[in-house]
Design goal:
This protein is α/β, with parallel strands linked by helices and 368 residues long. The chain is built from 14 helices and 10 strands. It is globular. It starts with 10 loop residues before the first strand and ends with a helix.
Length: 368
């Protein structure tokens, strides 16, 4: 965790910046070749921004145990790669507090400032492409539809975007878990690392209880992640798709998260499309109440992807592509990865063979 050793032969620099509401965020840049920046004619013409989902971080793109997405992009013609840790990242201590952030905050405050930070370094002539995952993809699609971010040359949204369709068991958990966690258990967050807590602590007891219903493996943190997301044993991936090293460090890769994000997810699921959490709140006046309706004005080429065995977001992107084909014809397309689920699309041991080439092909269509 927190190592860039998985990205070989690249200069890594960290760029802290403030979101639109002042919250501290981080970009990590991986680059090869001559120094780049405004005024340097040798700089690449394309940069790629990687966006994680809820409870993960930029670590999911730079894993050292096998070929990772950041390294693959560098190896295949994209020598300027940026990994964002937005406010849903497990790297930030404020995710261990009881907060009231929503996906609207990510869409309104995080992505516009992240792109402005990148452009300050790469110059105005550089095309920016985005690869986003899970709720990071939902929030980025919301930001794109709202016009909060502009000038993006292409975007890939994995697992979900502007439509959320969840398994029935996930919908049940969404109704119960936020209130149960905060007001009954008195905990501000859920944490896959609870199995490592002291004996008889609340977190350890919850984790032991969860493991009673998950006999598919002997890694308690894997059980916790399945309880937090999706419906299945396991829910987020197929064990056979994952490296044993990755499986053992699930608690590193999936961190704690406040449960208020779940309430916004619940509102989106009920509406059948991405919607603002608090319509009428003047703090979010620049965002549309209905993001899918606003997507009628989309012009950014968009690739919607998902594993065809997705037990977290189900067929969300399939449904989203149907809607976008109606609202913004020709802007989006759909790609399903056979045998893959939700998280193993990026974190699987063979993703560099089965998935990444297809992502790069799409980026190349809209690059030099």
């Amino acid at each position: 965790m927190f190592t860039s050793e998985g990205v070989h032969d690249a200069e890594a620099t960290v760029h802290p910046f403030a979101a639109g509401d002042g919250l501290g965020l981080t970009l990590t840049r991986f680059r090869r070749g001559p120094p780049q920046g405004p005024g340097n004619s040798a700089r690449p013409r394309d940069a790629v921004l990687l966006v994680h989902g809820l409870t993960t971080s930029s670590d999911m793109f730079i894993m050292p145990e096998h070929a990772n997405l950041a390294g693959y992009l560098l190896d295949h013609g994209f020598p300027d790669v940026w990994a964002l840790d937005h406010r849903m990242s497990n790297r930030f201590p404020y995710d261990l507090a009881c907060h009231r952030f929503t996906l609207d905050d990510v869409a309104l405050h995080d992505f516009p400032t992240a792109l402005a930070e990148i452009r300050a370094h790469v110059g105005p002539g550089c095309r920016i492409h985005v690869i986003a995952h899970c709720l990071g993809a939902v929030a980025f699609a919301m930001s794109l539809a709202a016009g909060a971010v502009t000038g993006v040359s292409s975007a890939i949204a994995n697992s979900s975007a502007l439509v959320l369709r969840l398994p029935a068991w996930s919908r049940c958990k969404l109704r119960v878990v936020p209130g149960l966690t905060e007001y009954v258990l008195g905990l501000p967050y859920l944490n896959p690392a609870w199995p490592q807590d002291a004996h008889f602590s609340r977190g350890r007891v919850i984790a032991r209880t969860v493991s009673l219903f998950h006999r598919e493996c002997d890694v308690p943190s894997c059980h916790m992640v399945s309880a937090m997301w999706g419906a299945g044993r396991p829910a987020l991936f197929d064990h056979e798709r994952m490296s044993p090293v990755t499986h053992e460090r699930i608690a590193d890769l999936f961190g704690a998260t406040g449960v208020h994000y779940y309430r916004h997810i619940r509102a989106i699921v009920r509406a059948g499309r991405a919607v603002k959490y608090r319509p009428g709140d003047p703090a979010y006046r620049d965002l549309p109440d209905d993001y899918l309706e606003a997507a009628a004005g989309l012009t950014t080429p968009l690739l919607l992807t998902s594993g065809d065995r997705n037990h977290v977001m189900s067929d969300s992107n399939t449904a989203c592509q149907r809607e976008l084909a109606r609202l913004a014809p020709g802007v989006s397309r759909l790609r399903l990865f056979p045998g893959y689920g939700h998280q193993d699309v990026f974190m699987g041991k063979d993703s560099a063979r089965d998935v990444f080439p297809q992502l790069v092909d799409f980026l190349r269509e809209h690059a030099d």
